[in-house]
Design a protein that fits this description.
- 29% of the residues lie in helices and 22% in strands.
- The structure holds zinc ion (ZN).
- Zinc ion binds next to loops.
- The site of zinc ion has 3 residues, from loops.
């Protein structure tokens, strides 16, 4: 842990990349905690306003899942190059939970997980009008609201992300990628899986690339993130008994309508909305390589969408 990079060092690397390129802009939003102040950084294409299609990337929502932010810091240059070559705009939140990154905790430095964790982006309205934070997959249209419209307790970084995202041109987002690591599932070796929706055939070449790097966690019950609790030190714990755990498919995809950012993007009509997971046993460089395969692949898929004739 002692050799781990701080949020300020990581963000300085991102600032360097942005400064060296003329086609990106960086904005900081201050996150005020009892434990101190951290910046929420947003990097976007300078020409975002003119882009007909946009790729959204978020990393580090869970502070101890460092592979995503490290990947973005390493790959920002290549990501911008690839997106802009295709005429795509880019919006990147490289470190969504900077205080948790520094504390090495899933949630923020105040150990505030809000009422449903910090990945709380939408709530569903059931037929009787009550709010639920997860629904079963299915074709039924669902009524939902942004969580920030409902007066539910949200952690500081989650509320700030809501404010930023609601100013983002979400109707032009063609692909969204949320980078995570599964540090909760126990007894699994190095492996990758992903949350996605609908027809996953477009991801074939990405899945093959990931599968060449690390085993795919296929056809497995994966309960990570269900009912996570935290102790006084902010350590996240997964309850030992979880009911109705989803099972990944043969390509290690899981469909989960859990009110996450990935789910929000799906509900907003984003064609490709994926959350990438590698297990805690996966070496960091391999986890970053998996993230890179997804970053490259999702930009290419967004480019295909951009060129596709309007239905
Ligand atoms: Zn996570």
């Amino acid at each position: 842990m002692s050799t781990r990079e701080s949020s300020s060092t990581l963000l300085a690397r991102i600032e360097d990349s942005v400064a060296r390129r003329g086609d990106l802009v960086l904005a900081r939003h201050e996150l005020v905690y009892r434990a101190g102040r951290w910046p929420l950084v947003r990097v976007a294409s300078r020409a975002l306003g003119e882009a007909k299609g946009v790729v959204l990337v978020l990393a580090g929502l869970h502070g101890d899942e460092i592979a995503g932010p490290i990947t973005v810091a390493q790959e920002l240059d290549g990501l911008a190059e690839r997106a802009h070559r295709h005429g795509l705009g880019l919006i990147v939140y490289p470190l969504a939970n900077p205080s948790g990154f520094d504390a090495g905790t899933r949630y923020n430095a105040d150990h505030d997980r809000g009422s449903a964790g910090n990945g709380d982006f939408l709530r569903y309205l059931s037929d009787d009008g009550t709010l639920v934070d997860e629904v079963e997959p299915g074709p039924t249209p669902r009524r939902w609201r942004w969580s920030s419209e409902l007066g539910v307790a949200l952690p500081v970084e989650t509320r700030a992300l809501h404010e930023c995202l609601r100013r983002d041109p979400l109707t032009r987002v063609l692909a969204a990628l949320d980078l995570h690591q599964d540090l909760l599932s126990e007894g699994v070796g190095p492996a990758a899986y992903a949350y996605a929706y609908g027809d996953r055939s477009a991801y074939r070449s990405i899945v093959d690339a990931v599968g060449a790097l690390v085993p795919l966690l296929a056809e497995r019950a994966i309960g990570a993130g269900f009912g996570v609790e935290i102790d006084e030190e902010g350590r996240a714990r997964q309850p030992s008994v979880i009911t109705a755990v989803p099972i990944s498919d043969a390509d290690a995809f899981i469909e989960r309508h859990d009110g996450s950012l990935t789910d929000l993007m799906y509900r907003l009509g984003v064609q490709h909305s994926v959350a990438v997971e590698t297990t805690g046993a996966t070496p960091l460089d391999v986890a970053c390589a998996v993230n890179r395969a997804w970053l490259e692949g999702i930009v290419e898929l967004a480019a295909v969408r951009l060129r596709a004739p309007r239905a």
